[in-house]
Structures are given as structure tokens and as C-alpha cells.
Amino acid sequence: MTYSISSTNFLNKYTAPQQNSVQNNQKSSSNKTYTSIFYVNDLHGKMTNMERLYAIAQQFDSFQPSYQTDKLKLASGDIILGANILANKVAHNFMNWAGFTATALGNHELDVVPPKLSEFMQTAKYKLLGANVTVDKGTPMDGKITKSFIEEHNGNKYGIIGIAPSDVLDRVKYNESVEEIHVSDLESTIKSVQEEIDKFKSQGINKIILLSHSGYENDKKIAQSTSGLDVILGAHTHNILENIKEGVNLLTSKDGEPVVITQAGKDGEKFGILNLEFNDKGVITKAQNNLSTTREFRRILPIKYAVENILGKPEILGEIKSVPPPPKNRLISHNANVAIIADAMKEGINADIALHNSGNVRGNFDVGTVDSRLISDITPFKDKMVLANVSEKELVNALKVGTKSFVNVGNKPGIFYVSGLKYTADTNGNLLELKFIDKDKNEHSIDINNPRTDKFYKVAMDDFTATGGDGYFADRNPNFIEKIFDFDKDELTCNYIKKMQSPIEIKDDHRITIIEAQKQA
Predict the structure, then answer these.
(1) Residues 227 and 323 both lie in one domain
(2) In whole angstroms, what separates CA 131 from the centre of its chain?
(3) What's the confidence (pLDDT) of residue 15?
(4) Are strands 456-462 and 385-391 parallel, antiparallel or unpaired?
(5) Distance (Å, rounded) from C-alpha 201 to C-alpha 310?
(6) Among 85, 209, 239, 278, which residue carries the largest CB count within 10 Å?
């Protein structure tokens, strides 16, 4: 069996076998099926990239390949992000506008409390898939999540399955969805996927696609532990899987057939086109996986107007004169772009300290005009601000959870960006030094090896972090919360920037220092 590997962009001629002479857009007489899948994952509510992806979807629809080709548009979850209803409405409408037929249930879909998520699904033109998900009877999402469905093009039927992440409880903040929606562990998930495959096979459907929000390593296990699966459109771990590479994203199933795995990074920065050739038994005989950069495509006016019709026009906040470049890995690097946001959090609710989890950073400031949409793009999770009375020991422990990200798989959950603190860590994941900076700019050393349990700080953070999200604080129902506000850090940041004198120079004040350490054996 041979595989065609090509980096040809999808806007060029579709790569297909040339041994048969056929008319343009005519199906070959060899009983082969040609399929082209436009796929996205982990958009995380990034609205400007959604606007570009809408334009790309239109080009995908209008492109005419040389062979009669079945075109599918599928997503693998985390299209939505955070609790902001208007931003989520944009993401939901994007799925409808762009013509996606299904998405897996990602962890961030559960940022939306079930009644509102249920309302979205009532107007959805796409399926929300979770073969490994159960929903409590009589709750708002009961009946809104589907295990699988059949999509048909040109007489060819595709079985499409979806799965949610087994670690969902670690990746969402505490809300009703945690109590009402349940996700199986990996072993049970694999069994559920095989059951759906077998169901399709019994109906004579032999081209089967899994929309997986389970992560790359789990996707490899699923590919090798099941029979009959052809494609896994992956997500959750934000891998970039380019082209087709044997052993990386071309694996072999239990029955010895090829399984192709994809993933296109995060935040809609990239999108994929997967071109496939199936034989008459539904086995992939050729594959071509193209990833392209979303920002190379322009946002078109109709979609910009449609988004503004939901959100309103952005507010102009000021001008940025200069700003350091963003780090290559935002999870484990100091980021001067975020220092201004942490300062806004601390000042905005009159706290001693602000903690901003690096996982909630999806963009950066640029030189030029800064508006409210840009702030929403940089920190798109729309959570509620919290003022918490945190002990010194709890503070140190939370910072250590962050610094351990240097040695964790995927560098998760990421370090804390801070205001009112300075700290030093090494790349072996150790917190080496910590200082509290009071409101008079005086520095006070904190004993990180013996932090006090009787000394407390007023700490600004969001409710995701405060209620145990990403494991920084262990308690899902903490008693240290003093006040919850009905706004997020983006509102505080907008107000903070408007007070600053434009043009603004954002500088690195070295409040976080990372030291290269000798690798541990």
C-alpha cells in the first residue's frame, strides 16, 4: 500500500492519482473515493481568526478539484472559550456561518453553563459529538450531545464520531456542567469508539472519522487499539502535525489498516486540509495533509459586520509606541505583554497581588492603535474577577504548581504572570526566590521553603483559578474567596490603558526571572 505525501496548498490543484484519464470533476472509474476535509481545532474563541476562517471556508467550498471530491468541514472542539455569552455567541454563529457539520465536545464548551449551551444547540446547524459522554436525565443538555452521525456526499457515506477529553474536570472551572455532564476515562472511551465503529460497519459504512478532543498521545492509543477507524481529527494538546509522517500521524490500526491523525495547533492560528483517496473497501490508499497559516488570509467585510452586530464596535483605548516581542512559549516564559494586564487586575480591585495564569493568554499587543477587541483577543477567557484572602503558604504552593510546568508534558498548566510579586525559577521547575512588593514599592522576601500559614494577602485572580482550575489551588470550593465581581480582567485592562498616557511604551521590568538549569537525570 502506498501513500502520497505532498505539501501542496489546497488552493493549488488537488493531488490525486493520475493513472486514469478523466474529465475535470468527474469520478474515476476505479471505484476510488476522493475526500477533502477542512478541519479546525482549539479556536478558543479567537474571533479575528474565526473571521478569517470563514473566508477560507468559502474558498474551500468554491474550489473545484480535478476529481469529483466529497468535501467535509469538521471541528474537534474548544471552539468556544470562557463565560462571555456574546463572545460564545460569535463562536456558535461562526460554526453555522462557515458550514461546519460537527464538532467534538471540548473542555471549553463546558465553560458555558448548560442552560446557555443548550440554547446554542437549539439553533445549531452542526452536531455536538461525545460518544464517551453521559448527561444527567432531565438536565438542560440532555439529548443535545450525540455520539455519532452519518454524513453523505455524492452517494458516499461517512461515519463521524466525537469524543470529549477524559481530563475535563481538570480543564474547566467549577460550574453546573461539572455536575451534569460526565466523561469516561480513556479505556472506556476506546470501547465506546469501537462500539460506534462497529455500528457503522454493520450498516455498510466503511469510511469512519473520529473528532477527538482527547489529546495527541491518547489519539495514538485510540488509533492502535481500534479496528475500522480511518481518520482522527485531533485537538486538546495543541500539537502541529504537518504533512503525513509514518509513526507520527500515520499509524496502523488493530486490523493492520492505516489511520491518519491531524492537529492544527491552537487559537485558530492554523487550519488544515486533509485530502484522501479511499479504495472500494474504505481503506485509505493516498493521503495529503496541508496546514496553512490563518493570518495569511484577510477578514472580509460581511463577517466583520456580522460579528460587530453581535459585539458592538470596539472601543479605541490608546496607542502603543513600543512593546517587547511575545515569547515563543507563553506557558513558561516571562511575558511583558501580560504584565500590564496583571497590574490592571491588582489596581482595579485594590488587591496586594495579582495572579494571571499563562494559559489564559492567546495574543499580544502590537505597535499602533489598541482597542477593546484586541484586549479580548489577548485574554479571551471571560471569567469573573475574584478578590481572595490567600495565605502565604497557599500562594507559594500555587506558584510552585506553575513553575513545575517547565518539566510537565506540554508545559501545562503554565507559570503565573504576576503583579505585586517578583520571583525567580529555573528550567528544572524549581521556585528559587520570591519577593512581595508592597504599594510603596518596598520588597519583602518570602521564605519559599517555610511559608507562613498565618500571613495573608489580598489576591486578584479569576474564578477559574480560584476554584481549582488547572490545579493551582486544590480546593474546588475554597473558603478564601472574599468577593466575586461581575466583570473579567479585560474590562479592568481597558480602564487601566485608558488612564495611561499615550503613546504607551510597554517594557520588561524583569518581575519574573527564568534561569537555565542543568537538565535533571
Answers:
(1) no
(2) 20
(3) 37
(4) antiparallel
(5) 43
(6) 209
Answer yes or no: do 58 and 148 share one domain.
yes
Among 296, 322, 348, which residue terminates a domain? 296
Q: Return the bridge partners of 344, or none.
A: none
Domain that holds residue 92: 36-296
- Do both 278 and 240 map to the same domain? yes
Number of domains observed in the structure of the chain: 2
> Left (φ > 0), alpha (ψ -120 to 50) or beta: where does 97 sit?
alpha
Burial code (b: 16+ CB inside 10 Å, e: under 16) for 63-93 equals: bebbbbbbbbbbbbbbbbbbbbeebbbbbbb
Cα(310)–Cα(373) distance, rounded to whole angstroms?
A: 13
The answer to whether residue 451 is domain-embedded is: yes
Question: Beta strands of 314-455 (E only): which ranges?
Answer: 316-322, 353-357, 368-371, 385-391, 416-419, 421-426, 431-437, 443-445
CATH of the domain at 44: 3.60.21.10
Whether 301 is in a domain gets the answer: no
pLDDT in tens, 348-380: 999 999 999 998 888 889 899 999 988 988 887
Last residue of a domain, one of 228, 262, 296: 296
Backbone φ/ψ region at 13: left (φ over 0), alpha (ψ -120 to 50), beta: beta
What's the one-letter identity of residue 250? L
Q: Give the model confidence (pLDDT) of 177-196 as tens digits.
A: 678 899 999 999 999 999 99
Say if residue 236 is in the same domain as residue 331.
no
DSSP E strand stretches across 139-279: 148-153, 156-163, 181-183, 208-212, 231-233, 250-252, 258-262, 270-278
What's the CATH code of the domain at 494? 3.90.780.10
Same domain, 318 and 288: no
Question: 239: which residues sit within 8 A by CB, 6+ positions away?
Answer: 216, 263, 265
Q: Give dist(CA 165, CA 185) in Å, integer.
A: 8
Q: Which three cell numbers stand for residue 217?
A: 498521545
Answer yes or no: are the C-beta atoms of 431 and 399 closer than 8 Å: yes
Do the domain assignments include residue 21? no
Q: Give the pLDDT of residue 326.
A: 85
Same domain, 328 and 398: yes
| Cα–Cα distance, 393 to 78 (Å, whole number) | 34
Does one domain contain both 183 and 265? yes
- Element (H or E) spanning 288, and its range? strand 284-293
CA distance 430 to 517: 10
Report how far residue 45's alpha carbon sits from residue 50's, in angstroms, rounded to the nearest whole number: 8
Per the domain annotation, does 160 fall within a domain?
Answer: yes
Please check whether residues 233 and 370 belong to one and the same domain.
no
Neighbours of 300 (CB within 10 A): 13
Selection from 115, 181, 104 nearest residue 149 by Cα: 104
